[in-house]
Structures are given as structure tokens and as C-alpha cells.
Amino acid sequence: MNSVNDLAGIFGQVIESNRVAAYCNIASLTLLCYDYITTVSDEINVFWGSPWTIGRILYTLTRYCAFIDGSILNYCESHFLNRYLRKARV
């Protein structure tokens, strides 16, 4: 019986740490959005009118892949966290 309680405690800690990680990921995506909003006018003036170069390609990839990666990560973590929380309640 003691091992069942130990497993339940460990499961609770894992769920809590995953929840904290999900909150940190949401906070980082929020900061990324804030950075984008505050610098988009400079980006329009400097990059959108210039020809495509290696530097512009690398800048575009690093600038916008972070949004895609962060969104997918937040979706997956929230989906799996909710699935495990539903199993824990049953």
C-alpha cells in the first residue's frame, strides 16, 4: 500500500513540474510576441524592401520559426498535460 502512495506522490510531482514547464513556455511565447510587436516597424523599414540575401533568409528563418516552434510546443504540452490530468481524475 505504501508503494501505491509513493507512486501517486511521484505522479503528482511530475504533473506539477509539467504544468510549471507549460506556464514557462507560454510566458516565453508571450515575450516573443511582445518583442515582435515592438520591432515589426523596424523590420518593415529595413528588411521588407531589401533584396533576398543569405542574411535576410537566416533572419527570416530565426524570426518566424520561433513562433511556429513555440506554438507547437505549447499545444503539445497542454494536450498531453490535459490528457494525463483526465486519466488521473478517473
TrEMBL record:
Q: Where is the DUF6533 domain?
A: 23-68
- Tell me the Pfam families matching this sequence: DUF6533 (PF20151)
InterPro entries for the chain: DUF6533
**Protein name from the UniProt record:** DUF6533 domain-containing protein
